[in-house]
Structures
1.
Amino acid sequence: MTEVEVTVDPAQAGFDEVRLQRIDRHFTRYVEDGLLPGFLAVVSRHGQIVHVASAGKRDVEAGAPVETDTLWRIFSMTKPVTSVAAMTFVEEGRIDLTDPISRWLPEFAEPRVYVKGPALAPVTEPATEPIRLWHLLTHTAGLTYGFHYTHPVDARYRAAGFEWENPPGLDLAGCSREWAKQPLVFQPGREWNYSVATDVLGRLVEVLTGKPLDEVFAERIFGPLGMADTGFWTAEHDRLAALYVPTPKTGRIVRSDQLGAVGTRRPDCFSGGGGLVSTAADYHRFTQMLLRRGELDGVRILAPRTVDLMTANHLPGHVDLEAYGRPLFAEMPFDGFGFGLGFSVLIDQIKAKTLSTPGEYAWGGAASTAFWVDPDEDLTVAFYTQLLPSSTYPIRQELRQLVYQALVD
């Protein structure tokens, strides 16, 4: 399956078709105003595709339109895939959520934690407990990202070559060793911080199997689910959407071929935190597997209880990210949202100021892609475009409003 198309009358799935058209009109204005190159949105309920909206170009300069089989860099929407892969090993008893990762990644055997001082000469202390698998899955390990620009350890990541890209020639094993050399920004388990934790998780999966991450994904997820167009790179460059960034003064898009090289060739590092290229049809199958609690078309990837555990709020005290996380960039809002094992989890729709349903779980990607799964409404939604960074416009909040105002049953 390489394309997505409507498979049910919206009214039969509880939607007002006229109201669904507001999705098309709203985001088409972004395209007409030069703020997005193009977009594709897919709404599904009860296992049927209810609405597909698209407009604009996958490559503005080439005049190539967005099509339903367009390939997109999904960046951090890779993280749920890596998390699912890791949990298949938990189910097999090969690793436990409480296991120290140093058992497989010895570079993390004696982590140090930042206390004070400048990036060049930080004062550190020993970690009071080891980094565990659970910490990686929940972003509570104390790792960070170089692009945060808020902490001396962030600057150390940048100095080591980690910001939006990784150092050339360094594979995932090498990246993991370099991250382990840096101090943690807090003691493991004490806070939440969006970070390279899922990349380290991907490396852990490689060590568990003795195989590169792309092979693990193909064997455990993509092959069984029929996700033939998803991988760390594609040779079909004509189908791959170009990547754009906003100009500082006007917000109008400008092409970024340097960052757009991601996904066009085999990478040195298989980034479990942000490296995949996929299509709407492929990722739809992944979200349907999640919605069905681990199974799709007779193929079971995870047990129902495992999916339930992954999509529950794991933050201590069941608080939201605003209370437990650092007020930094992430792919979802902090107010009213907790975090599970690889997903944000809506816990308070009033605090979040959203029409969505408590229990919804989601994540997004750096190029403004996003998805969510709403188990109560038996609903999945995904949005694809290629605008970096994802914090440029409130696309995700607007999409939620537009989808739920059309749900009328």
2.
Amino acid sequence: MSVQDYIRERFFPHIWCPGCGHGTVLNNLVRAVETLGLDKNEIVMVSGIGCSSRIAGYLDFHTLHTLHGRALAFATGVKLSRPELNVIVPMGDGDALAIGGNHFIHAARRNINITAIVMNNRIYGMTGGQFSPLSGEATTATTAPFGTIDPDFDTVALATAAGASYVARTTTYHVQEIRKRIAEAIVHPGFAVVEVMSQCPTYFGRKNKQGDAVEMLRRYKEGTVPLDKQPADPEKIPRGVFVQRERPEYCKRYEHLVQAAMTDGAALT
């Protein structure tokens, strides 16, 4: 199948702001799926609410556009009922780690075979530029005109501590990395998290004097460093694959439990 087979062309041009990084994520997600040669009927995309969640409307997969922060809860139901399907969940930083934070840590803890893409633009874009759990201290936002005092979550550290068996980070400047990491996450047999740092020039860039989209992309280029580069620069954000390990996958364990209960009621071992 070609890239065109995976998108709903009638819904283009997209409605993201000029310079938004989410279109780059969409582009490379589609190309990752194309690289893997997946049938679109084998894919279910579940999204919540926010700028990032619009991505589901542009893809010709089975899609669920659900409640704010609840995408992973719906995705868990889909995966348990149809474990043979590839379930992909694109989320924003608020959708994933604010109202959706509880679902995020428990999906990671269970190690259910879902691909979670966290599109981190450090702001609530769709509702007017409020700060999020990933904004960080001293960030200016509509709800923090004098700067935030809230420390931010580290998505990678949180996902790792919660038990995700694949955790990666990249940026919208590093487009080939996005494609590669998403492809790796989709085929990984467990809960996989890909954080993509994505620019929002409309709100975050403007309110924090980071310039236009080009300048924000330049910051991603110059302000990040590959994880395997030694010695790592402590002033730069590391990117790469932080976790890639095997753990028992939840759906398989659940199937084993059901079979045991249906046969002789044997305890799960």
3.
Amino acid sequence: MAASMTVGDFSRATRLSARTLRFSHQAESLEPTSIDPSNGYRLYDTAQIVDAQVVRGLRSLTVPVQTIRKILLAPVEV
């Protein structure tokens, strides 16, 4: 099981701003693994760092958010 990270820790680990993470969550391209119902804090798993790096790289290439979502949801063929 992967370790949970707060949005701040995840932001530092992935070099994505908290604002970008919130936007990615709203766009359903990089959703937190859980949200605390009492305070709304978002938690991410360390396993999501790879997806966050994909998001960061594709956004730097100005790939639209909808396309990033499709890429992240696409099945991986081995």
